[in-house]
# Entry
Amino acid sequence: MGRWRTSLLFYRVMASSKSINPKFCPNPPLRSSNFPLPRNRFSNFRSFSALPSPSPFYAEDFDYKAPNFDLDHNLELKENEDTGKILVKAFFLCTSVDLKSMQAENSKNIIPPTSRSSNYIALRFCNPPLQTGSVIEENDSCCRYMVVFQYGSAVLFNVEDHEAEYYLQHVRRHASGLLPEMKKDDYAIKEKPLLVDDMQGGPDHIILKNLDIDSIRVISSVLGQSIALDYFVSQVDGIVEQFTDINRGMEKSGTFTMDRKKLFQLVGKANSNLADVILKVGLFERSEIAWRDAKYAQILDYLREEYEVAQRFGNLDFKLKFVEHNIHFLQEVLQNRKSDLLEWCIIVLLSIENLIGIFEIIRESTGIAI
# Structure
């Protein structure tokens, strides 16, 4: 059947090609010219999709949502940023730590010092506390580092929030002057071995080509000083607030009623805070590690600038000068009050002496008259 149809079509094509006159056609066309030519109706079809078209009654069951590639990309970027990120936590929990007794208790964790500084010790813990049902292999990536300073700061490296208390207990056993509420600050370090420079700064983090123990010591020194400075600034703020209340009371009543002993206590507190910041915290002492290597000096200078250590100490010094000015003024008031009391005592004594003299004169004159 197919061969006969093919022969018939071939014969018609050959016959039509013999004449160019449209009126001459031994085999007229099958379709009359009065009928419209067939149109291409493929353009009227709706676009084809491999997904089935859901029925309006079940549209909610087959609700298709396109994947959010931007969200996936952002999550991937965040995961890449967190890769190689080392958490750093700084705490100020007391006013003094006995480093010798702490070093004796944790001798196996002590990292040998590389400088002559004796106001801190560095410890390495390669056996972190295990949670229930967890297994952690002992390797360098699991090691935790802690740097403890004599003035009460402790800086933890590669320690999660739920693990921090375990390491702080080592410090509390040798601490004195524990604070009712310790101060805390968070920071982060990122390691990038392919970094062109030795270091690069960022928001709330620093990027290092390689994190070694000297880098840990330098970073700890700045973070420890910064968190301790926060404590001393809060102490001075409390003193300033007390003097502000005293001045307001004098403005209303016109008198000064503070006890001399309490004033001297405020004087001693202000002076001890300034001495602790300069001597114990060593705010103006430069690390020996930074003196030896410019790489560590760059890290030290960057962090001191990032934490505005010099500016914050300047603000602290300004507040202490305000306190000192008020102390001198109030001491003069107390001194004048004491002088007034002495003057009244002298007046009373002179009055008594005059009365005695008058009495003797009267007695003598009475005796002569008799």
